[in-house]
C-alpha cells in the first residue's frame, strides 16, 4: 500500500468531522469524570466506574491526538474507542428503550411461526444457485434476494414486530432517549469509517498494520464480553470485599476487616477443613482408579470402544439430574444402596449361617457419613473423564519402549510401573490440578443432596467455602463478606496450584 506525504496530502471531507467527533468524545468523558451527571454510584462501585472512565478518557484522548496528527495509531485507537462506545451506549440505549424486556415473548412468537422462514431459505438457495459453478447470474441473484427480503418482511409482520415499529420510533425520538441514540449511531458510524479502505489509504496503513486491525476486529466481541461479564464483575467483587454491603444500601468501606474476621470465623474455618479433607481423600480415589481403568481400556479387545463410551457418560450427564438420582439411591429408607446391603447381608447369613446385622447408613442425614456420600458422587462423576485423559496420554507413548521392555523380559506390571506411570506425569499433573480445583469449588452436589434442608448438612458436615459464600451473600445479604470468602478461596486455589506447579517444575516437564 502506498504511503502518501501527510504534510501535503489533502484530507478528505470526512477527516475534519472525525477529528471533531474524537474531540467531543474526550470532552464528554472529561465532563462525565468531573461532574458525574446522573450517576448514583457510591463507594467501591463508584470508584471503579470513575477509574474505568478515566482510563477510557485517556485512550480516547490519545486516539484524538493521533487522529489529528494523521497517524495510523489514531485510526487504530479511534476504531477501538468508537467500537467500545458504540457497543456500550448502544446496549444502554436498548435497555432504556425496553428492548431486552420483550425478548422472551419475541422468541416465543418466533417459535410459533417458525415455518415463515421457508421463503427466506428459498431466497438464499436461489442466490446460492446463481453463484454455482463460478458463473454469476445477477438477475437470478437479485430475485433470490428479493424473495428473502419479502420472506423476512412477512415473518416480521406475522410476529407483530412491524406493527410495533411506530411505538419504538416514538420512544427513540423522546428527548430523554434521542441523545443516547445519536451518540450510539455516531460512534458506530465513526467505527465503520475507521475500518474503511478510504481511512486505510489516508492514514497510510501498511499490510502489517492492516492485519493488526483485522485481528482487533475478530477478537473485539470476545474482549468486550470478557471485560463486561468477567473482568468487570471480578474487579467489582474485589472492591466490594473491602466493604460492608447488603446490596440494598450504599457500601461502607471497612478495609481489611472482612478478611480479618475470616481468620476467626469458626464456621468458615470448618468449611475449609471439610473441603481440604475432601480433596485429600476424593482426588486420590479418583485419579488412582482412573489410571488403572485407562490401562484396561488401552487394549484392543472386541467392543472396547463401547466400554470407553460407557465409562465417559457420567462426566457429560447433567449435574442436577445425576445428583437427584444419587439422592434417591442414598435414601436411608427406600434407597437402592441400603436395600442392596440388606440383601447381600441376608444372603451371606443364609449361606454362612451367621447372624450379621445389616448396616443401614444414613447417607445424607448423618454427620459422619454425609461427606462420604458427596465423595462417592464426586468420584463417580469424575473418574470417567479422568480415564479418557489418561487413555489419551497412554496412547501417546511410543510403542517401541514397550517392545524394548518385552525384549528385556519385563512383565506387564513392570512395564506399567517403569514406562507408563513416569511418562504419564504431564497428564497426571493436569488431571490432579483440575480435580483439586473442582473439589475446592464444590457446591452443586452437597447443595442438591441436602435440599430442601440447609446445604451445610448435619452439623455443618457438608459445608464448603462456596456454600458458605452463598449463605453469606445471598441468604444473609452480607455481600461484602461473601466477596471476601470468594477471594480467600481464590488465594487458596492459586496457592495450591502454584505449589504444585513448582513441585512438578522441579521434575523437568514444566520448566520453561
Textual characterization of the structure:
The chain has two domains: 1-97 and 177-240, no CATH class; 259-505, MetI-like (MetI-like fold). The longest helix has 34 residues, at 207-240. Helix 3 (72-96) packs across helix 10 (207-240), helix 12 packs antiparallel against helix 19 and helix 21 packs antiparallel against helix 22 (479-505). The chain has 22 helices and two strands. The chain has 512 residues and is an all-alpha fold.
- Specify the structural class: mainly alpha
Query: How large, in whole angstroms, is the Cα Rg?
Result: 32 Å
CATH fold-level name of the largest domain: MetI-like fold
**In the CATH hierarchy, what is the architecture of the largest domain at level 2?**
Orthogonal Bundle
> Which spans of ≥5 residues are poorly predicted at pLDDT below 50?
1-8
Most strands sheet: 2 strands, antiparallel
H-E string: HHHHHHHHHHEEHHHHHHHHHHHH
Shape: extended
Please give the number of β-strands. Answer: 2
Instruction: Classify the helix fraction into a percent range.
Output: over 70%
Q: Number of helical segments?
A: 22
- What is the typical, i.e. mean, pLDDT? 83
Classify the beta-strand content into a percent band: under 5%
The CATH class of the largest domain, by name, is Mainly Alpha
For the record, the count of structural domains works out to 2
Strand order of the largest sheet: 1-2
Distance between the termini: 40 Å
CATH superfamily of the largest domain: MetI-like
Amino acid at each position: 500500500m502506498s504511503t502518501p506525504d501527510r504534510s501535503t496530502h489533502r484530507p478528505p471531507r470526512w477527516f475534519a468531522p472525525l477529528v471533531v467527533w474524537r474531540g467531543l468524545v474526550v470532552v464528554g468523558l472529561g465532563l462525565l469524570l468531573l461532574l458525574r451527571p446522573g450517576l448514583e454510584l457510591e463507594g467501591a462501585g463508584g470508584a471503579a466506574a470513575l477509574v474505568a472512565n478515566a482510563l477510557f478518557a485517556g485512550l480516547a484522548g490519545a486516539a484524538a491526538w493521533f487522529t489529528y496528527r494523521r497517524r495510523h495509531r489514531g485510526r487504530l485507537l479511534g476504531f477501538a474507542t468508537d467500537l467500545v462506545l458504540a457497543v456500550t451506549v448502544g446496549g444502554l440505549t436498548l435497555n432504556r428503550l425496553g428492548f431486552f424486556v420483550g425478548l422472551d415473548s419475541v422468541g416465543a412468537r418466533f417459535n410459533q411461526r417458525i415455518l415463515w422462514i421457508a421463503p427466506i431459505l428459498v431466497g438464499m438457495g436461489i442466490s446460492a444457485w446463481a453463484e454455482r459453478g463460478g458463473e454469476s447470474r445477477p438477475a437470478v441473484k437479485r430475485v433470490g434476494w428479493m424473495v428473502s427480503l419479502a420472506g423476512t418482511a412477512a415473518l416480521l409482520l406475522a410476529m407483530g414486530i412491524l406493527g410495533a415499529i411506530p411505538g419504538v420510533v416514538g420512544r427513540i425520538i423522546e428527548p430523554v432517549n434521542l441523545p443516547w441514540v445519536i451518540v450510539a449511531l455516531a460512534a458506530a458510524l465513526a467505527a465503520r469509517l475507521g475500518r474503511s479502505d478510504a481511512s486505510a489509504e489516508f492514514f497510510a496503513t501498511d499490510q502489517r498494520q492492516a492485519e493488526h486491525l483485522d485481528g482487533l476486529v475478530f477478537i473485539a466481541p470476545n474482549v468486550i464480553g470478557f471485560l463486561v461479564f468477567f473482568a468487570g464483575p471480578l474487579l467489582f467483587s474485589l472492591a466490594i470485599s473491602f466493604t460492608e454491603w447488603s446490596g440494598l444500601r450504599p457500601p461502607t468501606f471497612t478495609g481489611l476487616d472482612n478478611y480479618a474476621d475470616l481468620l476467626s470465623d469458626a464456621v468458615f474455618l470448618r468449611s475449609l477443613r471439610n473441603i481440604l479433607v475432601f480433596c485429600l481423600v476424593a482426588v486420590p480415589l479418583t485419579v488412582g482408579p482412573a489410571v488403572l481403568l485407562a490401562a484396561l481400556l488401552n487394549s484392543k479387545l472386541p467392543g472396547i470402544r463401547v466400554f470407553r463410551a460407557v465409562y465417559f457418560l457420567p462426566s457429560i450427564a447433567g449435574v442436577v439430574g445425576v445428583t437427584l438420582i444419587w439422592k434417591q439411591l442414598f435414601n436411608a429408607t427406600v434407597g437402592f444402596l441400603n436395600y442392596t446391603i440388606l440383601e447381600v447381608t441376608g444372603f451371606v447369613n443364609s449361606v454362612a449361617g451367621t447372624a450379621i446385622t445389616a448396616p443401614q447408613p444414613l447417607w445424607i442425614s448423618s454427620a459422619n457419613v454425609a461427606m462420604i456420600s458427596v465423595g462417592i458422587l464426586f468420584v463417580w462423576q469424575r473418574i470417567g473423564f479422568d480415564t479418557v485423559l489418561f487413555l489419551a496420554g497412554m496412547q501417546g507413548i511410543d510403542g517401541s519402549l514397550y517392545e524394548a521392555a518385552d525384549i528385556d523380559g519385563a512383565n506387564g506390571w513392570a512395564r506399567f510401573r517403569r514406562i507408563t506411570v513416569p511418562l504419564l506425569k504431564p497428564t497426571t499433573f493436569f488431571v490432579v490440578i483440575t480435580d483439586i480445583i473442582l473439589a475446592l469449588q464444590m457446591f452443586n452436589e452437597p447443595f442438591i443432596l441436602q435440599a430442601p434442608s440447609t446445604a451445610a448438612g448435619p452439623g455443618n458436615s457438608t459445608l464448603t467455602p462456596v456454600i458458605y459464600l452463598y449463605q453469606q451473600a445471598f441468604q444473609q445479604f452480607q455481600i461484602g463478606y461473601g466477596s471476601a470468602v470468594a477471594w480467600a478461596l481464590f488465594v487458596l486455589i492459586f496457592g495450591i496450584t502454584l505449589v504444585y506447579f513448582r513441585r512438578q517444575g522441579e521434575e523437568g516437564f514444566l520448566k520453561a
